[in-house]
Structure formats: structure tokens, C-alpha cells
């Protein structure tokens, strides 16, 4: 390994596995594929695509991602059991580069209460699971769940056994986000210096953010020799989430003077990935979130603005362009043609089929008629919306709402296409959204419960498109529906219907309930 290789950090993204385990963040196959392709494009080394034993849906997602992703390693998670490992091996089989990530708890608390296993049995399972996994791929990662609360001697024995059995990456998770940076760095150093065969594997860290220290702990670990960081887009993940990839890579880039490491991430793709994950999951990014928050590069106070005008470096430690945040560009107008529209899509990174381009172009013309100024964000919302509705069984045909002081109660008239039947009705409700949603329920009766209704303006101005997320839950399954339109009520009904379409797909597949790691 050259000196440069020794300083290369492997970026392991687990948005589709740990990230998806956040309550409410479940994604369908199509959405997972879209995220996987964006992760591949941005240069992620390893994509943890799911937990194949958890459900048929998880298996299918890992399997499909393994078929299409070429430039990143595709990884599946497995507990230390034959069933998990064989299912995982099946799922990742089509991948050009595949990894099995197998784990078992090693802390006294987890071994006693969760596993109800003696430490010596856990140690045997480490060897058994890694040995089995190595029959299917040369790239095996072993994780010590609750590693940061594991007794050091026992942790070192487990790591040594895993490497001896063939593990090529050893992951030490701070599963419950309990560690602090000096302590975590010391633990990683201890493992590196006390496991005799440690030179035969890469050491990885997987930090949760319960104390807001996931990124700090990951970077502290790198400073003492960890060479893989597990992270997620927007810091999605169990409870308070995982280390945010955008923060990890921008810290490494911006403070390369003190952290002279390399990685393969094209940071200009960060904003696109963040936006996609947020739209798909309905988890909006807080405005003051580092790197990807709406205000991350905004300068409000007069003193700061004055400084910025004189020299951007006064208040900006990285450029917005470096994370793919270009100044909102006024794009095409209502006189722009198909060719310019297609060029714009390519510029924004969309590669959609001719029919989808044609539909999106028609919608762009409608939008340009309604809205004075059309920005990149408008085009992105419009195309995302088009992609979302590609296979819908239920769709909205027309909607009219009567509301305001003269109309009490508000009334919605809705026309919908349900599996080819055109149906219509009028419904009232406690406010226009309630009236419209009641109308949807009249035309398509269902038991799903509304868990989230969220509206965002895509750009500034009162003529901005509204981007709506509706989260529905049915029999323990959660789906997120999205839509965008200049009319907030139209976007709301379309988002609701989009969620119902996703529930229909889930019902058809009737996957067993998911496990979580
Ligand atoms: O947090 C954790 O310990 C995990 C393991 C499965 C790596 O997610
Ligand atoms: Zn985790």
C-alpha cells in the first residue's frame, strides 16, 4: 500500500440501511434505486443497500441495487446466523463488487440481555459467521455491535478472531452514541495496537449521534488510524441518526491542513443527494444544519454581508459551489423550446426517458405560464414529481375547493381515476385540506392513518411551487407521498394520492414486518 493509499478514507454510506431504520423513513424500491445511483455518482466506496433477511422488500432492494450499481461496492447486512448470511449472499450476488457485513453484540449488557449468550459463545459465533460469509465473497466486514461499551480485552479477542476468520474490515460502532471523541480515539488506538493481526484489515467506525458527537467521534477515530467512516446523507439513522456524510467529507476537505486524508467523494454532488433523501423520506433538513441547511451559506447581518462583499473568506470557510449549491439560476422562460429544456435536464443531472421528458416539458410550459420566473429548483421539483407518478394506479383528474369566510364548511369537489374508473364526489371538512383529504377517502376508502402533512415552498415568492409530503401508516407500514404544484391544495391531494399508491404496491407485495439491526 502506498503512503497515499494509507491515507485514503473509505466512505461507507448506510442511508439505505441504518438511515431507513429511522421511524417514518421507509423507502420503496424505486426510491432506493434512485438514491443508490446518486450515491454511486458521488463516489461513495461502499453502499450498504439494506438488510436482506428483514423482508422480501429489503432483499429485492439490495438485489436490484447489486444489479445496477457498478462503481461502488454493494453491501448487505446480516446477523451472525446462517439464515441471515445466506440470504444476504443471495441478495448481493449480482454485484460486480459485493460485501457481506455481519455483526454481533459484544458489550456485557447486550450479551447478557439482548443475546442471552455467554461471551465465549459470542466469540465462537464471530468465527463461524465470518468464516461462512467468506464462502460467498472476499470482502467481509465484521462489526462489534455496542463496541464502544465493550470490555477492551474481549473486544480485541473478537476482532482478532474475526480477522483470523477472514474479515477484511473491522467496524467498531458507537451504537448508542455514548462515546466522546478523546475516549473513542483511545479505544480505536487500543484496538489497533493490541490486536496482533490488525494489519490485515481496515478499521472502520460507525457512530450514532445521540450526544451530537457522531461526526466528531468519527474524525477523532480517523486521526488515530481508522480508515473507513460509516455515515448517511443528512445524518439519517436510528434515533438521533448517524454521522452525516456531508459533514464528514466537508470537514476532511476544509481542514485538510490538519487532516491530510483523501476520499473519493465528489462534494459538488452533496446538495443533490441531500435534497433527494429529504424529498423521498419527508425528513426535512433543519435550516441551520451544517453544509446542507437552507441557511448554511446565507449571510443575514449587515456586518457579515459587508465582510462578504469585501472578501468571501471573511465569513465563508467553504464555497457554496463546493457542495453543489449554485446561486438560484433563472432558467428557461415560456418561450424556451424542447431542446433547451432537455439540455437543462442534463445539466441538472437528470437522465430520463423520452416520454418522461415530453411529459415534463408540457408541465414546464404550464408552469412557465403560471409563474413569472422559473428556477433550477422549480425544474427539479417538477421532474421529481413526474418520476414519482410514473406507475400510479390512482391519480387526480381535477380538484376544486370552496373555502374562506363565505364557505363554511369548506367544500372540495374531486375527480379521480381509480384503476381506470373515473369517480367524483364532493366532501366537506374542517378546513380545505381536511375537505380535500375526505374527498380522496370517499373515492378510495382506506384505513391508513395520516402521520405527517408538511408543506415547503420550493423557491421564494408567493408564486412559488409548494412541495408537499404526506406520510401514511397502515398495519405498521409507513409510506411517504410527495408532490409539487403552484397550487398548494393540488400538491396536497397529489401527495396524499401518491402515498396511497405506494401503500397499494406494499399491500401487493405484503412483505413481512421489518427487523432492525
Ligand atoms: O449501530 C450499530 O451498531 C449498527 C451495526 C449493525 C453496525 O448499525
Ligand atoms: Zn447503526
Structure notes:
With 517 residues, the protein is of the alpha/beta class. Helix content is 40%, strand content 19%. Strand 3, helix 4 (82-92) and strand 4 (98-105) form a beta-alpha-beta unit. It starts with a helix and ends in an 8-residue tail after the last helix. Residues 510-514 have low confidence and may be disordered. The structure holds 3-methyl-2-oxobutanoic acid and zinc ion. The site of 3-methyl-2-oxobutanoic acid has 10 residues, from strand 5 and strand 6. Residues 18, 173, 175, 206, 208, 238 line the site of zinc ion (ZN).
The percentage helix is: 40-55%
Question: Which architecture of the largest domain per CATH?
Answer: Alpha-Beta Barrel
- The count of strands amounts to 14
The CATH superfamily of the largest domain bears the name Aldolase class I
Q: Classify the secondary structure makeup into a structural class.
A: alpha/beta
CATH class bucket of the largest domain: Alpha Beta
Q: Give the end-to-end Cα distance, rounded to a whole number of Å.
A: 33 Å
What binds here, in terms of ligands, is: 3-methyl-2-oxobutanoic acid, zinc ion
Low-confidence stretches: 510-514
Tally of contiguous helical segments: 17
| Major beta sheet, strand line-up | 1-2-3-4-5-6-7-8
User: What general form does the structure show?
Assistant: globular
User: What composes the largest sheet?
Assistant: 8 strands, parallel, barrel
